[in-house]
């Protein structure tokens, strides 16, 4: 958790060339241009302060990815001041600035009902205030008086001020359109700039391919387009697996859109639609892939085809993310469309993600702020000699609100999931959770996976599905808490405790 700068502290740190270490101490990052502009503003405010006064609790470059980052946030007792820094006159960029404030406003109001949006124009040394969707001059003198007023209100606070925006978790501001339908239909969600660009692009003819790992918001783009255009376009949404209740509910809200399982898509007349969207395209079978590819080539000039896929998510032998990516690159080469890449996972808990990635590749160490202590606050592991020994613990977690995820059963033979058949009525398998997530997840790693010589988790079974990839998917479904039963796999348990969590070194230091 970062601590805020005071105004005099920041200006002093910048002027004496210690700002880099000061930012590290406060666990913040900031662009050099923004540091320079904030110092200019800070100096002007300091001129107007009594010599014994300072202004506290400024935070730089807060970035939650789902909205444009916040250049400067000031926190009062009940007020947030959002300062956008500009090198040149903000009036020239008013529309862009106001759009940025609008995107940020709803998220800021999760933290405070009183939000003030300001722009500092460094070239003109002036401040603008956003009022009812317009930018108006706001004197630096009035700004300094306002800050002193808010500082006075903080004098009797028993707890220190913190960056409330930084404390928000994905659960606070992200929704699942397949779970929170009412919120989705009401438009109560955020798209990043890139997501918005892609969604808008789907309104024009061509083949739009979107590549991204789990949690990057691919499906939300497709659903956003449906929500905005279902009355103006005849849309077909193709998805892998079987039709579920959620698809019937979506059909009720968007009657002009058809939701069709990949198993039924080849018997659907694609010519009846203006837009065809294919979700999780790496999981559709080869016959359907060829069918869609041919139709896309023939209709790219007058229809829209949206293809959403994850190259890395291969759960079985028929999954074909690499083939889909090659086709997407071919469409670009043939000038039939564009290929977009989504890189930021919005729903991910960085401590869980850092832990899981390191478990599956012992060489992929987490970032410095993802410490063993932080990981152990959100991840728990337990070793059991067999599945029956693990079941009481798993049941206890289920009773407390966790969802239990198993690997997908093998319909052709024995599988890892068989050992948890006693919990089949209270569990989901990997294929049932794809594209979704849960607050709290309990799952397992057993003898169906092992470490390769280069420290990577690989499959160690003869069952149909890729147990290593499925285990990764299951563990990355957790948003808040992850629990993992290590079942009769000492190598994996020792690697997690000694290398990932560093407990071997901890113990060594005690002796």
UniProtKB/TrEMBL annotation:
It comes from the Bacteria. Residues 207-396 form the Schlafen group 3-like DNA/RNA helicase domain. InterPro entries: P-loop_NTPase, SLFN_3-like_DNA/RNA_helicase. This is Schlafen group 3-like DNA/RNA helicase domain-containing protein. It comes from Lacticaseibacillus pantheris DSM 15945 = JCM 12539 = NBRC 106106. The lineage of its organism: Bacteria, Bacillati, Bacillota, Bacilli, Lactobacillales.
């Amino acid at each position: 958790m970062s601590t805020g700068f005071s105004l005099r502290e920041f200006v002093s740190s910048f002027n004496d060339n210690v700002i880099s270490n000061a930012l590290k101490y406060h666990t913040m990052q900031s662009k050099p241009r923004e540091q320079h502009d904030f110092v200019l503003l800070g100096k002007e405010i300091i001129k107007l302060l009594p010599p014994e006064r300072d202004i506290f609790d400024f935070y730089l470059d807060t970035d939650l990815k789902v909205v444009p980052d916040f250049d400067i946030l000031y926190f009062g007792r009940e007020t947030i001041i959002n300062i956008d820094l500009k090198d040149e006159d903000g009036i020239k960029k008013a529309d862009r600035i106001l759009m940025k404030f609008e995107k940020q406003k709803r998220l800021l109001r999760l933290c405070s009902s009183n939000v003030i949006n300001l722009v500092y124009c460094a070239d003109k040394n002036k401040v603008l205030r956003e009022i009812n969707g317009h930018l108006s001059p706001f004197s630096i003198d009035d700004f300094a008086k306002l800050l002193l007023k808010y500082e006075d209100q903080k004098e009797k606070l028993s707890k220190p001020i913190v960056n409330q925006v930084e404390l928000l978790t994905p659960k606070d501001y992200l929704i699942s359109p397949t779970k929170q339908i009412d919120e989705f239909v009401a438009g109560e969600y955020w798209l990043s700039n890139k997501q918005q660009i892609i969604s808008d692009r789907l309104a024009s003819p061509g083949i739009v391919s979107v590549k991204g790992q789990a949690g990057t918001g691919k499906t939300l783009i497709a659903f956003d387009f449906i929500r905005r255009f279902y009355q103006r376009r005849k849309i077909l949404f193709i998805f892998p697996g079987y039709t579920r209740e959620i698809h019937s509910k979506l059909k009720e809200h968007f009657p002009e859109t058809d939701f069709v399982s990949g198993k039924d898509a080849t018997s659907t007349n694609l010519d009846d639609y203006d837009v065809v969207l294919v979700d999780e395209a790496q999981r559709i079978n080869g016959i359907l892939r060829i069918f869609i590819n041919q139709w896309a080539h023939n209709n790219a000039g007058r229809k829209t085809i949206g293809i959403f896929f994850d190259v890395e998510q291969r759960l079985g032998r028929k999954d074909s993310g690499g083939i889909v990516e090659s086709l997407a690159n071919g469409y670009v080469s043939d000038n039939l469309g564009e290929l977009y890449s989504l890189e930021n996972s919005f729903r991910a808990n960085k401590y869980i993600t850092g832990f899981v990635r390191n478990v599956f590749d012992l060489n992929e160490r987490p970032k410095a702020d993802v410490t063993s202590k932080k990981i152990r606050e959100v991840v728990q592991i337990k070793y059991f000699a067999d599945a029956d020994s693990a079941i009481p613990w798993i049941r206890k977690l289920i009773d407390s609100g966790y969802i239990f995820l198993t690997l997908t059963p093998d319909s052709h033979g024995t599988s890892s999931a068989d050992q948890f058949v006693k919990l089949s009525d209270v569990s989901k398998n990997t294929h049932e959770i794809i594209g979704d997530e849960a607050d709290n997840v309990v799952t397992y790693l057993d003898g169906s996976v092992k470490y390769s010589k280069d420290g990577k988790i690989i499959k160690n079974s003869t069952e149909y599905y890729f147990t290593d990839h499925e285990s990764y998917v299951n563990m990355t479904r957790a948003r808040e808490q992850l629990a993992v039963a290590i079942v009769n796999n000492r190598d994996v348990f020792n690697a997690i405790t000694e290398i990932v969590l560093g407990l071997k070194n901890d113990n060594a230091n005690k002796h």
